[in-house]
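Reviewer 2 asked us to include a model.

Predict the structure of this chain.
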Amino acid sequence: MAAPIRLLILDDEPLFLETLQRIFEREGMRVATAERAERALDLLAEEPFDVVLADIVMPGMDGLTFLARARDRDDPPEVVMITAHATVETALAAMKQGAYDYLQKPAEVEEVEQVVRRAYEHRRLTRENARLRRLLRRNDPYGEIVGKSPAITEVRRLIERVAPTDSTVLILGESGTGKELVAHQVHRASPRGELPMVTVNCGALQASLLANELFGHARGAFTGADQARPGLFEEADGATLFIDEVGEMELEVQKAFLRALESGEVKRLGESRPRRVDVRLIAATNRDLSADVEAGRFRRDLYYRLAVFTIEVPPLRERREDIPLLVERYLEGRAPGVTCSEAALERLLAHDWPGNVRELFNALERGLIMAEGDTLRPQDLPPLGRGTPAAATPPPPRAAAAATAPPPATPGAAADGTFLPLAELERRHLEAAMAQAGGNKTRAAQLLGLSLRSLYTKLKRHGLAR
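Predicted model (structure tokens):
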């Protein structure tokens, strides 16, 4: 059975109070009354109310002052103002201060009841939405930025400075450092944070598909376009658009993308009418965009438009002191009660983590699978290097393997000396890389020395995309 509406009526006319109390109690509401605003505030302090029906003109504290005090509470009720001295000015002032509605005496009882019930439903939905938002934040897969090192503390400081603005943010960092997590933190701390952040990965889409994703299309714009479809710019209207791997964006898309950023307008494919959008942009890349600009792979004007405010996410090898905290947080989330032994932690601290936090978490996941008790041991972890100086560049995997392996057979040659077709050889190579990466396409692309977009193209060509 639903809880009754808790209604507080504030009016300096005793007969009016008594009449409404009797009527609304017959409707199943719990009703309290007060003849002065000061008494009404005392009642609000004693117990929660869903709706307050308040007069404006009263001796002592007036209704507008009461409204401001009532709405300033931690869990404020909805306030409906009612008065016989209505003016446009007082109505506007009440609504600006947060009144749900405004009624003029004499009002029909049915009208008052409808407004009270609508106000109650509005408050119920508002509180439910707030509860769900808190729950989502608590279960947010991106979580919080973990670490106390100077490098990660600086990242947090930059997020705090830029989040309240609408400035474009460019996030730089190696693969696996947590650039998308930083983007989510900027968005959540911004005035747009109540709406979902819209995300697109440029490395996963060819130029034509990326343009369609960003700008959308009109019905009939191309074969198969049976329905109009808004692009991600339109979906992110009023919120944030996160462009991941922006360095992989093709030059032909960069031009239209820059135009949309500068004008605040987008045109769907097949339409001539532009549409206004209000979008805050965050972009991320693991590439050196300034070098790409010099090489002609990235537009200079777009680079300057993106690099309004940059945040560099440090690699894990430059903040090793955060590894124990990251391990603790990961284990708390994935396997409460499991701890990491000192010996295992020493192995984790000794590794350089070229794959950064993502590689660390993958190692811990493997350790949890192999662990036989509630303590992670060194033998539970995957093989890890002893670590090299941070300034040194580790040898490429193929070069390291070649130094210890026997001379290979002729590439692509079968046992009888015949050669496999090149397409079949590429297919087997892709399958082997995907198997070694455990199905992780980003890791497979790194193993093959390909961009993620190129890997997707090759997987699709060989029927391996899934």
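Residues 216 and 229 are 5 Å apart (CA to CA). The longest helix spans residues 109-138. We have added this to the supplementary material.
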